[in-house]
């Protein structure tokens, strides 16, 4: 079978694209090996009608809805390569299976690379997070810490001040704040610590204290940390599409990459803000672009 579209990735972008294309009676293959980045998250927020849903439940409901359409198939396979064909593309998988399609939609999302701090992985998703819009409400009015060696830590501090006035900013050993920024934060009683954090002291993932390089500790019950964002998968070497400085696929407003017939949606293209609702909207828009392109080709 040659599908109209092969969707690589079964997160909100890929699944919403499959829904739109399925309703347009397009033959769709969703290639997804069920390893979502947000699996550690206990609840996802900010998506109307699904506020507080677990990632697993979100995917279960989404697949239940998408697979109602007979032209949509889920292939639980890991993609290892892609190649251009005459009039389409071939996707190869870890098991050796080959899937051919007229169009490709890359919706593989991101992976996070964290600083090496003891206890971070145990706390992440329980008391440490990366997105205030996703988890700020749950940590409201608590003593919080922000650990980030990025210049954006100043903006993060101002943003979090809405949710909690008890903030400590740790630049993790880097001088990323200037004197004016420090003075502004300190005028709001926001403490700045420029030495490195070495450990998150916790009880079953619930943060209790943060230890710094000099051995000192402060009590905190939650916080936010800024990871390095990297594409979870990339096939620009296989297909030749353009990527931006962060490794995301460069697309136009319809999700088209610089290679004809190859689309991208969600975190695979814009790399932030990393929220369900943004990714789902991008998937819907890309699906409309794919369907339009298929329609034009069919009427030649």
What's the quick description here?
This is Pyridine nucleotide-disulfide oxidoreductase. This protein is of the alpha/beta class. The chain has helices at 12-23, 55-66, 120-123, 132-135, 153-160, 179-187, 236-239, 276-298; strands at 2-8, 28-31, 72-75, 79-85, 88-93, 98-106, 110-113, 128-129, 144-147, 167-170, 191-193, 197-203, 206-212, 217-219, 222-225, 228-231, 262-264.
What's the average pLDDT? 93
Give the CATH H-level superfamily of the largest domain: FAD/NAD(P)-binding domain
- N→C terminal distance: 22 Å
Please tally the helical runs, counting DSSP H or I stretches of 4 or more residues: 8
Q: Can you walk through the features of this model?
A:
Homodimer. This is Pyridine nucleotide-disulfide oxidoreductase. The protein has helices at residues 12-23, 55-66, 120-123, 132-135, 153-160, 179-187, 236-239, 276-298; strands at 2-8, 28-31, 72-75, 79-85, 88-93, 98-106, 110-113, 128-129, 144-147, 167-170, 191-193, 197-203, 206-212, 217-219, 222-225, 228-231, 262-264. By secondary structure, it is of the alpha/beta class. The protein folds into 2 domains: 2-112 and 229-298, FAD/NAD(P)-binding domain, CATH 3.50.50; 115-225, FAD/NAD(P)-binding domain, CATH 3.50.50.60. Strands 1, 2, 3, 4, 5, 6 and 17 form a 7-stranded mixed beta sheet that branches. Helix 1 (12-23) runs parallel beside helix 2 and helix 1 runs parallel beside helix 8. It is elongated and about 70 Å long.
């Amino acid at each position: 079978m040659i599908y109209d579209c092969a969707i690589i990735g079964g997160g909100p972008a890929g699944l919403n694209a499959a829904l739109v294309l399925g309703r347009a009676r397009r033959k769709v293959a969703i290639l997804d090996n069920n390893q979502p980045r947000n699996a550690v998250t206990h609840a996802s927020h900010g998506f109307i009608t699904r506020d507080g849903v677990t990632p697993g439940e979100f995917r279960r409901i989404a697949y239940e809805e998408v697979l109602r359409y007979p032209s949509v198939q889920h292939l639980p396979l890991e993609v290892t390569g892609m190649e251009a064909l005459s009039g389409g593309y071939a996707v190869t998988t870890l098991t050796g299976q080959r899937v051919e399609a007229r169009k490709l939609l890359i919706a593989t999302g991101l992976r996070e690379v964290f600083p090496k701090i003891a206890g971070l992985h145990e706390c992440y998703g329980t008391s440490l997070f990366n997105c205030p819009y996703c988890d700020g409400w749950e940590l409201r009015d608590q003593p919080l810490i922000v650990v980030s060696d990025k210049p954006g830590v100043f903006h993060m501090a101002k943003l979090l001040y809405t949710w909690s006035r008890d903030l400590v900013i740790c630049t993790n050993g880097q001088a990323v704040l200037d004197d004016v920024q420090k003075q502004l934060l300190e005028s709001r009683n926001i403490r700045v610590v420029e030495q490195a954090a070495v450990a998150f002291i916790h009880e079953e993932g619930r943060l209790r204290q943060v230890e710094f390089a000099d051995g000192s500790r402060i009590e905190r019950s939650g916080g936010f940390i800024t990871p390095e964002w990297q594409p979870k998968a990339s096939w620009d070497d296989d297909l030749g599409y353009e990527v931006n400085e962060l490794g995301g696929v460069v697309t136009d407003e319809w999700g088209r990459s610089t290679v004809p017939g190859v689309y991208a949606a969600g975190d695979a293209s814009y790399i932030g803000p990393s929220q369900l609702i943004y990714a789902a909207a991008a998937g819907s828009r890309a699906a409309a672009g794919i369907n339009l392109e298929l329609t034009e080709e069919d009427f030649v």
